[in-house]
Specification:
Structural class: alpha/beta
Radius of gyration: 21 Å
Strand content: 15-25%
CATH architecture of the largest domain: Alpha-Beta Barrel
Order of helices and strands: EEEEHEHHEHEEEHEHEHEHEHEHEEHHHH
Number of strands: 16
Oligomer: single chain
CATH superfamily of the largest domain: Queuine tRNA-ribosyltransferase-like
Largest sheet: 8 strands, parallel, barrel
Length: 416
């Protein structure tokens, strides 16, 4: 049996929350802070596993909800790190063999239910309203979530036990407990109800996970997911409850920091949670990747991050640079390089803003696929490099100076 997760803090920030560390899993080591590439269906769209290695990816996150029907097949192959998915982008189907994480599908609970048809935005959704009950595709009960699959219109159900069975068959190194993600429109009273239900689901998840975590011949690990919306009392209470939750003396291996909240509240919410959670266990901030999110998240105790944004925004012509993001629509025939000094393969090959724009706007599907590969490499490398720089800054005792300088250039667009 290959033993499971262990975590070491190499150096902590003066506030006692932020740190640089190392997470050991059965499939490799993650040096933190780290950005985790999102491969929803078991691979990162338009990138090969070789691309991921070359741009410095340390781990990949996939989604248990989206892979649930392929879970037995993945288990038969020996788990996610051994499974060869069919690729739709002709990049190749070699598996990512490094550390892997799976999300439980808590976001899908909200997106098919109260958030159906809504655009979730930390900056804009101050006046968001929930989808009417009669229009929702998902129904939450104590047992779990009954829903209509939007792809085939068939009824389905996932509860904590089903989620753990699915994730243990997929065989990622780290799993997330099944949770209910509330929306920004949900009341304080409903957040209490959902938080307590998430805690009950967490205990059921832990119980089911302990029965199956060694099924594939190596130790799989489980993170509890914290909810509680934007309220300090709920966040601190659930952090205390999940930190001490055990079955037969065994607790969670780490913690996922989740929830829908306004961007301006991120730092405080993470501080509330991480002041209560044990310092010696890793924490993963779910679904955020913009530079200020990562810098604030690291300062307040998050160790790993994931989000589809770097690749999704790349496909829509949004290119990251140290002086802020650029929209390729504005750079027809431009001979400027993407980001001076960038070490990604796209920039090193000499691609300019104008040449990338020409590929992107081409009517040729092969050229578009080429663009998706090149732009995704650049944006993902930018985000991963940021976490590498943050790690170096923590270890070198200049994190505050690095944070202030980076944010000044990126958000004030001081030069390009």
């Amino acid at each position: 049996m290959i033993e499971g997760l262990s975590f070491k803090i190499e150096k902590a920030l003066p506030n006692g929350l932020g740190r640089a560390g190392m997470i050991w899993t059965a499939h490799g080591v993650i040096k933190t802070p780290a950005f985790i590439a999102v491969g929803t269906h078991g691979y990162v769209r338009f990138l090969s596993s070789a691309n991921l290695t070359q741009l410095g990816a340390q781990a990949m996150l996939s989604n248990g909800y989206h892979l649930r029907r392929r879970a037995p097949e993945i288990a038969g192959a020996g788990g996610l790190a051994a499974w060869r998915p069919e690729r739709q982008d002709e990049i190749g189907n070699m598996p990512w063999q490094g550390p892997t994480i799976t999300d439980s599908g808590g976001f899908q609970v909200m997106s098919l239910g109260s958030g159906l048809g809504k655009v979730v935005s930390m900056e804009k959704e101050r006046q968001v309203t929930n989808t009417a009950h009669k229009e929702r595709l998902a129904r939450v009960t104590e047992e779990g979530v009954s829903f209509i699959d939007p792809f085939d219109a068939q009824p389905d159900f996932i509860g904590p036990e089903e989620s753990m069975r699915i994730q243990c068959q997929i065989g990622a190194d780290i799993h997330m407990a099944f949770d209910e993600l509330t929306s920004l429109a949900d009341s304080y009273e409903y957040n209490i109800e959902a938080m307590r239900r998430t805690e009950r689901w967490a205990k059921r998840s832990l119980n089911a996970h302990l029965q199956h975590r060694d099924d594939l011949g190596y130790r799989q690990n489980l993170y509890a997911v914290l909810q509680g919306g934007r309220w300090e009392d709920l966040r601190r209470q659930t952090a205390k409850n999940l930190a001490t939750m055990q079955i037969n003396g065994i607790g969670f291996d780490g913690f996922g920091l989740g929830g829908a909240f306004l961007k301006e509240d991120l730092g405080e919410i993470l501080r509330w949670c991480n002041e209560e959670l044990p310092a010696d266990k890793p924490k993963h901030l779910l679904g955020l990747s913009h530079p200020d999110d990562i810098l604030i998240g690291t300062a307040m105790g998050a160790d790993t991050f994931d989000c589809v944004a770097p690749m999704r925004e790349a496909r829509h012509g949004k290119i990251y640079t140290k002086f802020g993001s650029l929209n390729l629509r504005q750079f027809r025939d431009s001979g400027k390089v993407l980001d001076p000094g960038c070490d990604c393969a796209t920039c090193q090959a000499g691609w300019t803003l104008g040449s990338l724009r020409a590929l992107w706007r081409s009517g040729d599907s092969e050229k578009k696929r080429h663009f998706y590969n090149l732009a995704s490499i650049h944006n993902l490398r930018f985000t991963i490099r940021l976490t590498e720089q943050i790690r170096a800054a923590i270890l070198g005792d200049y994190f505050t100076e690095f944070k202030d300088d980076f944010l000044r250039h990126y958000y004030q667009k001081t030069s390009y």
